Structures are given as structure tokens and as C-alpha cells.
Amino acid sequence: MANLKKLLLIGGSTAAVVLAGLTGCQTRDTSDRTAGRIIDDKAITERVEDRLKEDPLYKFTGVDVRTFAGVVQLSGFVDTQEQKNRAGELAQNVQGVTRVINNIALKPDTGLTPTGGTNNVYQSGQQQNPLNQQNQNRQQVPVED
Question: What is the residue-level pLDDT of the chain in tens, covering all 145 positions?
Fold first, then answer.
């Protein structure tokens, strides 16, 4: 019986300390948006993402969407300027979007072919070794014995 009282006392004290510590935690979004605006922005983001994924030509898997107060920001990478423009158009036509900030970038040209080789490996029908080309471009330095 005495053990039960001690257990209840310790358990109750622990719960009181935990609750007192959590009362100072802020769980509200501090972005100066109302709860309704936050819900609307989430819905806009979802609709824009759906439109981008449903596009029959591009599917836009590499594009991120963020929304704040009806303003949609697009970011990520695509292959062509046409894809970037299309993503912006799709986002602008979603209900509730007031403005689109299109920060999508074009993927850099790496110069690699799908097999990982460089485009200048085959020239005039003969295979060239890129290392030999680099050596030919170096200036010859006389070596003394």
C-alpha cells in the first residue's frame, strides 16, 4: 500500500513537471497567416503539384511547389525552357493562385553521353583517346641529363 502511494506521488509529480514544461511551447505558425489562409495555401500547393504531375508531356517530378498567401513559388530543375514555361503556365491557371514566382532552373549541360563518355571521343571515324589529346596540348619542356 505504501509502495502504491509512492508510485502515484512520483507519477503525478512527473506528469505535473512535464505539463508545466510544455505550456511554454508555441505550436502556432508564426508567419502572420490565419489558420484559414494556411489551409488555403496547402490546398493550392496540392492542386499545383497535381497539375504538374498530370501534365501529359512532362510530369514535372523535379519541381518543388511552395505557397504563401496565394503566391506560388516553383523551384527545381527541368531540361528545357519550354518545360519551365509550361510549369509556370500550369501553376498560374490553378484556382486561388494570385502570382507565380518561377525559380525553376535548366539542368546544366554536362557534355556527357548516356554511356558516360564525352562527345569528342569519336572524331572523323577514328576513336581518339581524350588523355592523348591532353598530352598533345601540353608544351614540351626540354629535359637535361
Answer: 666 566 555 655 655 554 455 555 544 555 689 999 999 999 999 999 999 999 998 888 899 999 999 999 999 999 999 999 999 999 999 999 999 999 999 999 887 766 655 555 444 445 455 544 544 544 544 555 4
DSSP-derived letter for residue 23 is T
Residue linked to cell 503539384 = 49
- Write out the H or E segment, with its range, that includes residue 20: helix 2-22
Report the predicted TM-score, pTM, of the whole model to 2 decimal places.
0.57
CB 52 within 8 A of CB 63: yes
Those residues with Cβ within 8 angstroms of residue 80's Cβ, 6 or more apart along the chain or in another chain: 106
Q: Among 142, 140, 118, which residue's Cα sits nearest to residue 131?
A: 118
Beta strands in 81-123 (DSSP E): 99-106, 122-123
| Domain layout of the chain by residue ranges | 31-106
- The CATH number that domain 31-106 falls under is 3.30.1340.30
135 SS3 class: helix
